[in-house]
């Protein structure tokens, strides 16, 4: 997910290619654009972007998220961290 977000930020021509009537602001990387790029469900993209934000802010260590065995485990971990923060 992080790689896809970074790729889109570094390749604005890909953003324009993906731009559809659904994407209101094709000039910036947002959940809708990542959803179109990866073909994921919107909720999964939002969950991943939330985790990326938490890692960037230093709320969680990236390695802690990466070591979790499944997407569901990552969502549960984020819920627990949000309760404590």
Key attributes of the depicted protein:
69% helix; 85 residues; 6 helices; single chain; mainly alpha
Verbal overview:
There is one protein chain. The chain has one domain. It has 6 helices and no strands. It is mainly α and 85 residues long. Helix 3 packs across helix 4. The longest helix has 16 residues. The protein starts with a helix and ends with a helix.
Brief description of this entry?
The protein has 85 residues and is mainly alpha-helical. 69% of the residues lie in helices and 0% in strands.
Write the layout of secondary structure elements.
Layout: H1 2-10, H2 12-18, H3 31-38, H4 42-57, H5 62-66, H6 71-84
Helix pairs in contact: 3-4
* Beta-strand content bin: under 5%
Distance between the termini: 24 Å
Low-confidence stretches: none
Radius of gyration: 14 Å
The overall pLDDT, averaged over residues, is: 84
Count of strand segments? 0
> Main β-sheet, in a few words?
none
Q: What's the assembly state of these chains? A: single chain
- What form results from the Cα inertia axes? elongated
Order of helices and strands: HHHHHH
Overall helicity: 55-70%
What is the structural class? mainly alpha
The figure for the number of domains is 1
Number of helices: 6
């Amino acid at each position: 997910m992080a790689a896809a977000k970074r790729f889109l930020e570094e390749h604005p021509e890909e953003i324009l290619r993906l731009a559809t009537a659904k994407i209101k602001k094709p000039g910036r990387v947002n959940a809708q654009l990542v959803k179109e790029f990866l073909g994921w469900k919107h909720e999964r993209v939002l969950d991943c972007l939330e985790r990326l934000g938490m890692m960037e802010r230093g709320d969680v260590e990236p390695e802690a998220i990466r070591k979790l065995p499944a997407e569901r485990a990552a969502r549960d971990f984020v819920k627990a961290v949000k309760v404590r923060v």
